[in-house]
Amino acid sequence: MKIDLIAGARPNFVKIAAILHAIKNSDKKFDYRLIHTGQHYDHNMSGSFFSDLNIPLPDITLESGSGTQARQTASIMTGYEDLVSKKRPDLCLVVGDVNSSMACAITAKKSNIKVAHVEAGIRSGDLSMPEEINRILIDSISDYFFTTSRKATDFLLNTGKSKEQVFFVGNTMIDTLRRFEADFKKPEVWDTLNLKNTQYLVLTLHRPNNVDEVSNLVKILHIIGDNSRGLPIIFPVHPRTAKILNSQKLSLKNVFFTAPLSYLEFNYLVKNSKMVITDSGGITEETTVLGIPCITLRNSTERPETVSIGTNELIGTDSENIPEYLDKLFEARWKTGGIPELWDGKSGIRILEELSRL
Ligand code: UD1
């Protein structure tokens, strides 16, 4: 069976790495090509992940780049359609919920190519997020579903998918975290700011809800900086957020900006931090497994187990909610978390076992 493995944006590289490492270590032969859609293209959003995660360079890069939702999606679709019209795979495997995953899934399905979705069946219920629309679209047309939780599996079965199509395999993002945990490396900012274990916070923000309105974004930064009890807050700034902040003259207490960090550097920072504040989904899974307290600045999450089992608290997008949770942290009232079922570093192997039976 010929398989197209699709990756386009930062979180995709982390998930696809788990599958590539499982292929490398498998006795069986898998005939695949790795396709990079080009959605993320800066070195620190893309290239650094290939070297950090020790994965082969893409066999094909589509260079779709950025643009509006529609332009980016269209560019990935036409690029991938040209490719499959010349050389068809038997299966197109997409991971996660980014535009690249959705665009390639739809293109493959319309070319009568079977589609497999890794991280299927999770829902936030929030249709204002492009990722939620992507999840619904991908799951509605996929043939095979690999899930990170029993809840996601049950959801898919309840929507009419059959047991022969849905496989609860665990979390590929955690495979990669476990594989590289011993290799996490100090970012430059560690020495520049003389950081100490558990004596700083990490912040990431890139969702339109939090960053597109500049006054709202600046208010979040002020509130965190004013309530961190003097601890520095390290903020690796996503390009989307950087574009918005670049036009601002800011005078912030305790908040330090860096460029986006590589995978190994970012997770070094997370693993040794006192807390992470984020609006990402994947990061809440990593903090859960690393046992680091996490605040999510969103109204909903498609990863509820990070709250019910893990260390995450979902506090909404009103930044006035933040101080109450920082007090909880500093007064040592943060819940201790556990690790969700099958988040054990072997999801890639389970995916390959199922693929080899198809
Ligand atoms: C995308 C994903 C999101 C994921 C995030 C991780 C979708 C809908 N969203 O959001 O789920 O959490 O990636 O990073 O697919 N840009 C650069 N350099 C790059 C990449 C992007 O400057 O290497 C700029 C783009 O020009 C654009 C902005 O960043 O202005 C947003 O990029 P885009 O890929 O459209 O979405 P993200 O916000 O990164």
UniProtKB/TrEMBL annotation:
GO molecular function (one): isomerase activity
Keyword Isomerase: yes
Residue intervals of the UDP-N-acetylglucosamine 2-epimerase domain: 26-355
Keyword annotations: Isomerase
Record carries keyword Isomerase: yes
InterPro entries: UDP_GlcNAc_Epimerase_2_dom, WecB-like
Coiled-coil regions, chain positions: none
SUPFAM superfamilies on file: UDP-Glycosyltransferase/glycogen phosphorylase (SSF53756)
Family: Belongs to the UDP-N-acetylglucosamine 2-epimerase family.
PANTHER family according to UniProt: UDP-N-ACETYLGLUCOSAMINE 2-EPIMERASE
Protein name: UDP-N-acetylglucosamine 2-epimerase (Non-hydrolysing)
Organism of origin: Christiangramia gaetbulicola
